[in-house]
Each structure stands twice: as C-alpha cells, then as structure tokens.
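Hi P.,

Sorry for the delay on this. The queue was packed all week, but I finally got your sequence through. Input first:
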Amino acid sequence: MATVTTLSSAARGSDARGRAPYLVQNSIDFGAAATAKGTALAAADIIEAITVPANTMILDAGFEVTTVHAGTSSDCALDLGVTGVDPDAYVDAFDLDAASAGAYSVGAGNGPLTVGATADTLDVLIQAQTGTTTAGVIRVFALLLDVDDIGTVGADEVDRDTLA
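Then the structure:
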C-alpha cells in the first residue's frame, strides 16, 4: 500500500461569518498518480484528493469520470472517504474500469464526517484491482462547511455616549 500525496488540492472558498456550504473539486489523473508513486498503482493504494481544513464538516462527496480507465485491470474498484476514519464514507466499490466518461459515483449513504482540530484529506482508495491502471481521470468533488466557532456575533460596546 502506498499513499500518493502530490495530487492533493487544498480546499478554499469558505464563506466568512455567514458560514455557507461551499463546493471544492480536484481532478485525479491515474497516470500522474502512477508516475508520482514511481510504480504501477495497486490495490490498497491511497490517492489524497482534497485537503480539508481543520474544523470542517464534509457534508457529501463523490466523483465524476472525465476520462475513461485504461490499463489491463478488469476489476478496478474505488472508495472515497477519509483514511483512518471511514475510507468508504462517500463512495464504496465504484467500478472504474466499467464506467464511461460522464458517469458519477453513487453515494454510500454514510452521512457527513467532521474533520477535527487538524486538517485531513479526502482520499481515493483503490479498494480492489487486478492488473494495472495506467490512465483515466476522475473529478473529485466535496461539499464542505466550516464548523469552527464563529465567536460573538453581537455588537461591541462603544463610548459614543461620552462623546456628547
């Protein structure tokens, strides 16, 4: 098992005080992942897709196949989740080699996950694979919400009455 970290994209776009959910995305090129790893991709390899800031809830996530799978694998299954917490929280056993361009993953239905006091990553796990994966691209997306303390929302006290 290897972890490819060089393809990860940092989440950005958090709204300020109002705290609205926001969408982030990153394309994962399996050819580039194999190059970054230095050897062929294999079952149990992890590809970090999106860096999620601390104190952020991942409301939902998934991916779209933008370039079809290439290689000798006839059974490449992908999971999407947070390694060490729930590696298939959002997608479980997506059949990549059978998918066509434009196909979307189906949600695993496990519900939101909250990233704690330190940042973490949303990861693509090659759950199963026979043969090799040499090419293919998926667009990983996630709906995030900053759940950090917003502090006091009321007005501050001022000395306007003593100015008169």
